Amino acid sequence: MKEIHNILAINFGGIGDEIFFLPTLISLKKEFPNSKITLALEPRSKGICSLTSVIDNTILIDIKQKNKYLEMLKLLFFARVGKYDMVVSSGGNKLISILLFLTGIKIRCGYDTGDLSKKLLTHPMPLNKNQYACDMYHDLIRGITQHNTKLPQINIERKETVPNSVLIHPGVSKISVQKNCIKTITPQIWAKTIDLLVSKGKRVQLVGGPDDKECIDDILNCVETKDFENLYGTTHSLKDLAELISGAEIFLCSDSAPLHIAVSLGVKTFVIFGPTDDNTLIPKTDKVTPIKANDNCELKPCLWARRQTTCEKLDCLKITAEQIVDTIIH
């Protein structure tokens, strides 16, 4: 393949999606070390740039606003004037292949969504959603490089590990809450988990982001022990949170972006899973352990695959504090 100088990567979604996309970008950088990578992403996820050096430039495209088609035209404009040699785009929408073709970029990598994509893309790749998300994204460049970066890697200044510590991040994204996608246990169960961990001699730290204030307040109103560290409000950026996670001996969280930061750092992590699929959201490694209810629901995992919101029963999230603590300690 000819020398590649400029690469445009397109990946819309939350911070978790951008972390999943990092192995793809890292492999491209390994294959083309002298290239510059520009990432087109949503404004809500721009914090990813503080965690990695592999992204040289960004284009912010707010596809969630009402004028999303104007935003896509903006992306097309930047793509055409940017003198890119290659474009790589995630997403299974059939219109993506048309968008990539209209950029005029010679090398176009996207998912095979049918006959049109086979004609418009130079590298139409199979879309396999039944695998770890990092592998799914990395499939986009299987025909471009032999490099195979398996896990996300982030570049931060790691903190010294706090002995016997359990760092708890109970929150989920604000968008999940707004969409009625309940993916975590109640504040009451989080509070009891803190009480039990402290009673077992663990040094418990509680943290959350701006979206988690209500959840944190509810936990603080329910928790009985005072012998833990409330670190809410001490992290002011994604990088701050990543550095805090890097110093945890154990990280306990919900299915949300902090989980994927912990995976990138190789921190021993336990994560609450309910309606989502742990097989696609965490790698096969002894560093990450899913905690799930024994509900025997035939539809689980249902969120995204069968539903766009969670059901009212939420049997899949009937996880006790005792189960969580037993899993962590044993």
Q: Quaternary state, please?
A: single chain
For the largest sheet, list the strands in their spatial order. Answer: 3-2-1-4-5-6
* CATH class wording of the largest domain: Alpha Beta
Q: How many structural domains can be distinguished in the coordinates?
A: 2
What fraction, in percent, of the residue positions are helical? 25-40%
Shape type: globular
CATH T-level fold name of the largest domain: Rossmann fold
Report the sheet-strand fraction.
15-25%
Give the N-terminus to C-terminus distance in angstroms.
52 Å
Write the CATH architecture name of the largest domain: 3-Layer(aba) Sandwich
Structural class: alpha/beta
Order of helices and strands: EHEEHEHEHEHEHHEHEHEHEHEH
Q: Residue-averaged pLDDT, rounded?
A: 94
Radius of gyration: 21 Å
Flag low-confidence runs: none
Major sheet size, sense and barrel closure = 6 strands, parallel
Number of strands: 12
